[in-house]
Amino acid sequence: ILFLRSLPKAELHAHLNGSIPISVLQELASEYLASRAASGSSSSSISDESLVAGIEKLKQGPVLEEIMDFFSLFPAIYALTSTPEALKRATRAVLSTFLDGDLPECNHLELRTTPRQTTAMDREQYLLAVLEEVELYDPDKVGLIVSVDRRMGDDVLGECVRIACKLRSEGRRVIGLDLCGDPTAGQVETFAPYFAEAKKAGLGLTVHIAETIHNSSEETMKLLSYNPDRLGHATFLDEEAVEVVLDKRMCIEICLTSNLLCKTVSTLESHHILQYLKADHPVSICTDDILPFRTSLLAEYALLLAKPPYGLGLSQDQVRKMGEMSLHARFK
Ligand code: 5GP
């Protein structure tokens, strides 16, 4: 544990709303329900019963039959992080989980989140609330990646990218753009001009790619042609895609537990990370969403060290090198 804790490493793929400690969500839920009862309000995106059931599911550790079950966990969380105050509290708790303490989980964190418009804030106010917390830390330690969702239309997408570029030009700690959300939704061509705009503004680009068996080779090749700096998951790359990835040295953000629990990878022994380790290709070990996947960055690194079938059985030297690779793949 001491070896893993003291190992220099970066967390590069953590979704804010999937990384909130359950204790904080429970507190937010109690306050939310109490204020709704006091105001007699019935207007909400989610019923009180669904909210309570959703939080209980997260507390128990959700059972996922397939990756799509995972996305249904978010409406309950979103109901609780829909004001700037609540969002800031949640962000503070996530930052603290990764970065605080004598021997923190990582030396560097890139936190990502999708700007949401609610009745209490617009998308820019959403990002400003998160940034206010992020910027309480040393800028060398943490940066914000703005996520766009595959379900977004041109108008919202344009708005998110415009705000991300503007904030960066104002010297705020926005470092990248991410494509995430339901892997089966949307047409990736929609995103091409926005990716180009973000890159022009100096933002790093990372895309969730080939996450499920349903993502076509054609879609994957299109996404690769937009020249992302890093790739999220990249589970179902065919030979042609692997060749491009190896050739361009695109770092792969690897989320072992997430892949196993979403059943996109069946065993650690068959995980695609092994093929990249063999090729000495850059990878970065990440958590994805520590709340539903009940993991931590240390637990993900522990899977590297543990002997098969519980882990990959790598040596300390190999694991040290993976920490270095994650630091090397940071966005500037
Ligand atoms: P947020 O962006 O709201 O802070 O974090 C939660 C959101 O991140 C989810 O609603 C989902 O759109 C996205 N997300 C989290 N984990 C994954 C993942 O493993 N794959 C994909 N494609 N999207 C994810």
UniProtKB/TrEMBL annotation:
InterPro entries per the UniProt record, alphabetical: A_deaminase_dom, Ado/ade_deaminase, Metal_Hydrolase
Gene Ontology MF: a single term: metal ion binding
Keywords: Hydrolase, Metal-binding, Nucleotide metabolism, Zinc
Catalytic activity: N(6)-methyl-AMP + H2O + H(+) = IMP + methylamine
Domain Adenosine deaminase: 8-307
Highest taxon, organism lineage: Eukaryota
Family: Belongs to the metallo-dependent hydrolases superfamily. Adenosine and AMP deaminases family.
Protein name: Adenosine deaminase domain-containing protein
Organism: Gymnopilus dilepis
Lineage of the species this protein comes from: Eukaryota, Fungi, Dikarya, Basidiomycota, Agaricomycotina
